[in-house]
Amino acid sequence: MAHSAVSQVVVSVPVSGDSSALTKSVFKAQSISFRVTSWAPFSTLSSKRTSKNLRDQCVVCMSVQQASMPKVAVTPLELEDPKEPPLNLYKPKEPYTATIVSVERLVGPKAPGEVCHIVIDHGGNVPYWEGQSYGVIPPGENPKKPGTPQNVRLYSIASTRYGDSFDGRTASLCVRRALYYDPETGKEDPSKKGVCSNFLCDAKPGDKVQITGPSGKIMLLPEDDPNATHIMIATGTGVAPFRGYLRRMFMESVPTYKFRGLAWLFLGVANSDSLLYDKEFKKYLKDYPDHFRYDTALSREHKNKSGRKMYVQDKIEEYSDKIFRLLDNGAHIYFCGLRGMMPGIQDTLRKVAEQRGESWDEKLSQLKKNKQWHVEVY
């Protein structure tokens, strides 16, 4: 039986009674300057809107997989005010010390490898937008530069700006534990395991973690047109930013963003046990069938039309006519995952373009010019 994520979320439910305690600050406030926008911890902002939203409410905890409310109230709505995204509020030489809230295994027992959902409490001090990344500095010193800290590792954020608790205090990461197996013996070599991914996946609630950022603008979700089409193509943990997009579109009640377009997610993983956030996505499919499509490519279970393993580019080819029509009509297309995913995808798109009598190089150039093409690979 596959293990499901039980990351905690918070849902506001109207009840009678005083809940003013919910608005109390539990961290030292500090102001953060960014360009012409003053990014400040939300506890220092005017509490009028926060108090209004929280008045006569209580907090109910449930797992992400059990959340059944179509839309969830979020706070503080001041996070919607800035016109520009926060960038590099904390740098490697002066990182922010955040706290681990929870670490949950996302995949089932038959998945090759382990992927964890990690919730980090930043206290509202390191705000971010959907599609951005945090840097993580694991403990210990850099083996190549003794006496200096470890290098920063970047991770795409897998939550909206309000976090999994909908209060603007947390961020979630989707992390695959990196292990190394000797090709000759087949045995694991602990000395070559991924330092940061293992630190995060082994972390316990209350542990401290050094974070930097947020960083990145290429994967920001364009919100100027709520009727736009967004085609998202992910392999493995590359689904992280898309989880943030989809929660903003379909789970959260954001007064300034009412999504009425089409979101289409393609997710490539090894097998059914490797699917990430699958129940969340299937719930959107049930609740918003006119606005969400969800296709998976399971390389060890599905076959492509040639009888070989099914990869995400095979799914793209399967729906190529529809995808190209959507792109011609202004759709945004996003790619996130391992760097090795792109050559196969590009080859498929080139082949489809040629079959349509188009030049892929010209089409790609136009997509980039129109800011419809978004790629983040690692």
Describe this structure in words.
This protein has 378 residues and is an alpha/beta fold. It has two domains: 77-214, Elongation Factor Tu (Ef-tu), domain 3 (Beta Barrel), CATH 2.40.30.10; 229-377, Rossmann fold (3-Layer(aba) Sandwich), CATH 3.40.50.80. The protein is built from eight helices and 17 strands. The protein has helices spanning 48-54, 195-202, 240-251, 278-287, 312-318, 320-328, 341-355, 360-369, and strands spanning 8-14, 32-34, 37-39, 57-63, 72-73, 96-105, 115-121, 133-137, 153-156, 170-176, 208-215, 229-235, 252-253, 262-269, 292-298, 332-337, 373-377. The protein has a six-stranded antiparallel beta sheet with strand order 9-8-11-6-7-10, with helices on one face. It starts with 7 loop residues before the first strand and ends with a strand. 38% of the residues are buried. It is found in: Plastid, Chloroplast. This is Ferredoxin--NADP reductase, chloroplastic.
Give me a quick take on this structure.
This protein is of the alpha/beta class and 378 residues long.
Relevant terms:
single chain; 378 residues; alpha/beta; Elongation Factor Tu (Ef-tu), domain 3; Rossmann fold; 8 helices; 21% helix; globular
Structural class: alpha/beta
Strand content: 25-35%
Count of domain modules: 2
Which CATH architecture of the largest domain would you pick?
Answer: 3-Layer(aba) Sandwich
SS summary, helix count? 8
Within CATH, the superfamily of the largest domain carries the name Nucleotide-binding domain of ferredoxin-NADP reductase (FNR) module
Radius of gyration: 21 Å
Strand order of the largest sheet: 9-8-11-6-7-10
Distance between the termini: 31 Å
Number of strands: 17
Shape: globular
CATH class membership of the largest domain: Alpha Beta
